Amino acid sequence: FRHVIEYRSEDPLARVRETVTTARSILAGERTDFDGRTLSTHGYRLLMKKPEPAIPIHVGALMPPMLELAGEVADGVTLNMMPVEAVPRMVEHIRAGAARAGKDPATLEIVARFQVCVTEDKASARAVLRAAFGPYFATSVYNRFVAWCGFDDEAREILAGWRAKDRGRVASGVTDDMLDRIGILGSAEECRERIEAFRAAGVTTPMVSPFFPDEQVMWRTFEALAPR
């Protein structure tokens, strides 16, 4: 909606709330007429008929304030890069937001995107994942998030390495334990067991995202984890 919405503020919670409100009205076929704290839009309407059935709106969220807002205003929540131990806490905040809006928390879809690799060579998979995760976990948002998830020492080491422009220190801060608990890698059976553990913790829709840069490994991962 960048071409039809004027954004005026960087307040993330207000911006997400008002964007969801605006997107919902557009998807309902209404002409926009909205002035909020963070955005305004007037006179825009879909050229096509409104979608049927209605398109659900999901909000990506990590920390408690956004998790609660997602539970309050969205139809679903998308999670990312957390260990299974953090999921019940995240779900608790989502449900608190839903309850605040008078919604049944059970109606919310909780999606989680997992970095997955079906392989017998865990060392090689970890090396690829470590290179990808290091810069992510050095950013302020994800650094705070992984610390909140229980990786306090790792978060401090990664941030210190990033500030020192020491790539080796950043990489060493992303420990094997961290990779094995956030990523999903190993045999097909191991990967299935890990995904089921996340389901049991509260994820309703696991999303498999193969990360290994080899097409054969990617297809093997999809095929091994396809519904039976």
What general form does the structure show?
globular
Question: Ends: how far apart?
Answer: 39 Å
Based on secondary structure, the structural category is: alpha/beta
Strand content: 15-25%
Mean pLDDT score: 93
SSE pattern:
EHEEEHEHEHHHHHEHEH
Find the count of extended strands (DSSP E, 2+ residues).
Answer: 8
Largest sheet: 5 strands, parallel
Rg, rounded, reads 20 Å
Helix content: 40-55%
Low-confidence stretches: none
Number of helices: 10
Task: Tell me the layout of helices and strands.
Layout (H helix, E strand, L loop, with lengths): L5 E2 L4 H16 L5 E3 L3 E4 L15 E3 L3 H10 L2 E5 L6 H14 L8 E10 L3 H17 L1 H9 L3 H12 L3 H7 L2 H7 L1 E3 L1 H14 L3 E6 L4 H11 L3
Parallel strand pairs: 4-5, 5-6, 6-7, 6-8
Antiparallel strand pairs: 1-3, 2-3
Task: Summarize the structure in words.
With 228 residues, the chain is an alpha/beta fold. The protein is built from 10 helices and 8 strands. The chain has helices at 12-27, 64-73, 87-100, 122-138, 140-148, 152-163, 167-173, 176-182, 188-201, 215-225; strands at 6-7, 33-35, 39-42, 58-60, 76-80, 109-118, 184-186, 205-210. Strands 4, 5, 6, 7 and 8 form a 5-stranded parallel beta sheet that branches. Strand 5 (76-80), helix 3 and strand 6 form a beta-alpha-beta unit. Helix 4 crosses helix 7 (167-173). The longest helix has 17 residues, at 122-138. The mean pLDDT is 93.
